[in-house]
Amino acid sequence: MAMGEFPDSLADVLAGVQRLIRRRLRAGLTAPPLRGAEVELLRLVVARPGIRVSAAAKELYLAGNSVSTLVNRLSRTGYLRRETAPEDRRSALLYPTPAACARLHDWEVRRSALVREQVSRLSEADQAALASALPALRRLAHNLHEEAEG
Fold this sequence. Notes:
Structural class: mainly alpha
Number of strands: 3
Shape: globular
Largest sheet: 3 strands, antiparallel
Radius of gyration: 18 Å
Strand content: 5-15%
Number of helices: 6
């Protein structure tokens, strides 16, 4: 493969793997599926309970009104609880509900099992190649994050 083709191929493969994982995990759902941005927001709120809507928007690189729409939808479905910030009544703090935590935990367990099973089906050489690529992929993610911050 020519070096000029590599970045596009990498992006295509990463997106394809992520899409296929989501599709496989949706098959076993008993609740309506969540959109990608909804899952990202829930994961962020579970990791940082009490995060402000504006901070969540910045962290997810989304417009504030987009996050507000997601918050409204997730609040209606019982996955987010919104509280008024005591020091700024115009600001909302976000908290996950037990239902959100349970759903995310279930998703993470199922995702881990799926990926573990699929990786085990690869040859030892392929498993080693993927493992050795992880540091570079983490640096790529870090660079993308840093550039978006700047």
